[in-house]
Amino acid sequence: MTTTLKVATVQFEPTMFEKERNLARLEALVIEAAQDGAKLIVTPEMGTTGYCWFDRAEVAPFVEPIPGPTTERFAALAREQGCHIVIGMPEVDPETNLYYNSAVLIGPEGVVGTHRKTHPYIAEPKWSAPGDRGHAVFDTPVGRIALLVCMDIHFVETARLVGLAGADIICHISNWLAERTPAPYWITRAVENSCYLIESNRWGLERTVQFSGGSCVIGPDGAIEAVIDTGDGIACVEIDLERARARRMLGEPVFEQRRPELYMELPTTTFAWNPLDFFTLYGHRPLPKGRRSQVAVAQFAPTGDIDANLDRIEALAKAARADGAELVVFPERAVTGLDAPAAVPLDGEAVARLVAIATRHGLHLAAGLAEEDGGTLYNTAVLVGPQGVVGRYRKTHLDASDHNWASPGNEWGVFDTKFGRIGLLIGHDAAFPEAGRVLALRGCDLVLCPAALRGALTSAHAGTAIAQNYPIPTGADPHHWHLMRARAGENNVHLAFANVLDEASGYRGKSGVFGPDTFEFPRREAIIGAGEGVVTAEIDTTNLDTPYPTNVVRRKDLVTMRLPHHYVPLIR
Hints:
Blueprint: E1 4-11, H1 19-35, E2 40-42, H2 56-59, H3 69-81, E3 84-92, E4 99-107, E5 110-116, E6 137-140, E7 143-149, H4 156-164, E8 169-174, H5 184-193, E9 196-201, E10 203-206, E11 209-212, E12 216-218, E13 224-227, E14 233-240, H6 241-245, H7 275-278, E15 292-299, H8 306-322, E16 327-329, H9 349-361, E17 364-373, E18 376-385, E19 388-394, E20 413-417, E21 420-424, H10 433-441, E22 446-451, E23 458-461, E24 477-482, H11 483-491, E25 494-499, E26 501-502, E27 507-508, E28 512-514, E29 526-527, E30 533-540, H12 552-555, H13 557-560
Parallel strand pairs: 1-2, 2-3, 7-8, 8-9, 15-16, 16-17, 21-22, 22-25
Antiparallel strand pairs: 1-14, 3-4, 4-5, 6-7, 9-12, 10-11, 12-13, 15-30, 17-18, 18-19, 20-21, 23-24, 25-28, 26-27, 28-29
């Protein structure tokens, strides 16, 4: 059976209170896509009715059961055109009379499956209940299809659930707003799960809300394979499902490398209670007070010469200190070198010299090294300061360059410091959304990530014609998507990412310090766009003197809004 097929995304501006008009326009767009050869056609969230409803009473005349008149209408169209169609609509459950914001997959035989939006945005509680059907994957003649609705995809767990269940394609229908699209989270979910993502977003203005358009098809490598910036329209493209079924991220078999035994916190809700109370419970590991701090990342290519590497680390640390930095993060294996690493003990000369550099310049330093302990080798990151070694973390998710020499670590690195609660990850760990999430659930304010990652971690945007309110950017951006910005925002942490730069060997750098709120503009971040060097940004882990969190790194909105009763399959 062929694994190639043509798919289409439909972009559309529905009109509230004009359901028949919306249905007729959607039918016309679907027919246009089908006649262009599309076998899977995706239309926007709530495309049959519009989105910004005041309450249940206002939307009540437009809700329907599934199956119902609208799904029967599109099933007839699917039979006629020989295709599958995804429709977004308000659903009523006849047994409970509850309303849901639903996505429906319809084929020539009728309704294949329904997804009720599980993670509500601010608008849904005005009229609908959170979805109660979990996150299914539907096996169809056009591939293994999953459905997600808008806010669902903010949460790493939803796309991971369907990825692990074998989805070739995530059909994500949305009413996305408040940023330039294709949105970075859309790209991140495709990349981290190595699957296609067909994004159907609405555009236009409804009840003062400006929607962002940017409907697109995203490949398993994050490339935008087809896109509509603004206006009604369709975009078709041929895809190959074998690319998704390879399950490779940055060339690595990420699903095989997962460590579910380390993810046991994912089905928990550590932020269900006031975190300032929760983390002081029984007096065990209360969150540190926090402060405003200057954090830097350094980007360079370590060699096999430990002394030369430490000389380079000191020079870069000195430059960062001159720029006001108090904490500097260096790349993975910055001390010992990347190839055939000469492993060192933590109580040896190399780490002692790293502590001496920290002491001379009044800094804290995080750096990677190959560690030897009792005859076993680890890919390790150490955090040191003038007081000595603060802590170490041994890489838990090994990549191809680690497997011929290193053993995996078996515990997370979380340390309380004057900068706040710090978590450590190393390079390939950050490819796994579960890793950052566990650190967030443990209350980390700041994640340090020494890395040696090859491949594309960023992509550009040419700019959009959609008008947005100031200060939401609309112009061209060379770093519109950055994997580590997404990791910071989805976990509401500051993230300091220091990558190797060695273009000849595939290490492209793009080191940076990223802020905890993806939708805050101007962004609180600094990126090294090219070349070796350092860059510094301010982080803020403080809280006003109140019993409740006033800082997003302490409040963690996107962690608080998780619905972890859905997430149990992630730890199996």
